[in-house]
Design brief:
By secondary structure, the chain is of the alpha+beta class. The protein has 2 domains: 1-26 and 134-158 and 329-373, no CATH class; 47-130 and 162-327 and 374-498, Outer membrane efflux proteins (OEP) (Up-down Bundle). The chain is built from 13 helices and 5 strands. It has a 5-stranded antiparallel sheet. α5 (109-129) packs antiparallel against α7 (163-229) and α8 packs parallel to α12 (446-482). The longest helix is centred in the middle third of the chain and has 67 residues, at 163-229. It is elongated. The two termini are 68 Å apart.
Length: 503
Amino acid sequence: MTSSAVSISAIDSTRGRTALTAPAKLHARRLLRFGLLAGAAAFLGGCASFSADGGMGSVQSAAYTDIGKDVVKIGDDQAALTAKSRVNQLLRKPLTADAAVQVALLNNRGLQAAFNELGIAEAQMVAASLPPNPSIGISKLSGRFELEIERQIIGSLLALATLPARTEIARDQFGAAQLRTAEAVLRLAADTRRQYYRAAAANTQVVFYQEAKASADAASELFKRLGESGGVNKLDQAREFAFEAELTVQLAQARQLQRQERERLVRQLGLWGEDLKFQLGSLPPLPRLQSVKAIEAEALRKRVDLRIARAELDALAKSLGLEQATRLINAADLQGTRTYDRSRNVTEDGRVERNSSRSRTLALDLEIPIYDFGQSKVALAEQTYMRAANKLAEKAVNVRSEAREAYTAYRANYDITRQYQNNVLPLRKIIQDQSLLQYSGMLNDVTDLITDARNRILSNVAAINARRDFWIAHTDFKHALIGGGSGGGSVAVAAAGGGGGGD
């Protein structure tokens, strides 16, 4: 498809051989006045400037309000030293989950890259709010007796006229970029907290297996001496030695998982070198059950991804209005030209006559579509808007479901963990103690003793994993209400549970 271009020109010759009529001069002045006024209005009303904090103010406010943590964009050596000093202070003590989140928010370079993306978005917003740059051209045509110099300046009137609207759209897009940066902060906080609980649970498993292994080693040594004296037969000896060997394997598996989970946490914290010597705290005890009312409404009100989708939808709505307003004009350029001509003539008597002239030209070029009256532009904008609207509606439905699912998992894991603590573990201890008494009284054999000891170990490991899963579900539930936590919950828990080494 093609479009036609219509050019409206007016020539004002102040000196030279050509003179304009009064209506032509008036028309030229009106066009010039219109261009100047449009440019001045767009420049004064549409220009944006860089903010003092690079757009970080709203991100810092959201981080402190939602998770109670500080975030800092490191842009110079002083900021880097300040952040490093605080990280070192936090690493001097065994890390808690809250301290680990704060270290990640201060030290993770991927988050700093997200802050740089926000700076890029602000630069794009400022660039979109500036008037279009005019183009300037100078040409010179010279011969033996003639010289012509032409100077041109061309600017887009359409870009100037739509500058306020485009500036408002750019500001809305920058607001969405701020929300996306806040979402990156919440996502890193959620991922770090989950990984902390996995690493702490792996440490607890190693400690428990070490204690069980020490008891099994002592029992194996006793059985070895009893076997040498004839007090225990070889079958009972072999069963005890096999149990001790199994514990050795399980301890090795637990140590391997411990190293893996610690390295995953290290990546979240962004640590290396001497900082890798940090110590982890233990899993927190089971808290009181958190009762939340109207979780769907709270999620719809707080979820940052929903706020991002709404902001992007608002920007698309304004873009659609701009497309409809400019559907019949693709381009409108104002061109001003000033020409200087100089020539020489030789008369019959040998005298040289010099002539010169100056002229100004003001031209308005409008590109008017003939075969496409803007339908494709408007249709594209409308379909883009409807796609975003449908995705927002889908996200709202999903947010409700995710909030209910997260609360269900939180409540179920709470009940499971409490059941292990209040019933399963105490009963397992009673069973093993009684089994030991009966074995000492020669009322049962070593097989029952080993089976009860093995079952108690499995129950303790399952209780550790249940407490880990509860705290991960607690994190998922919290971030299901504020955002930034999707994609790290149940799948990751299942993967971590599958490598426990003693489940």
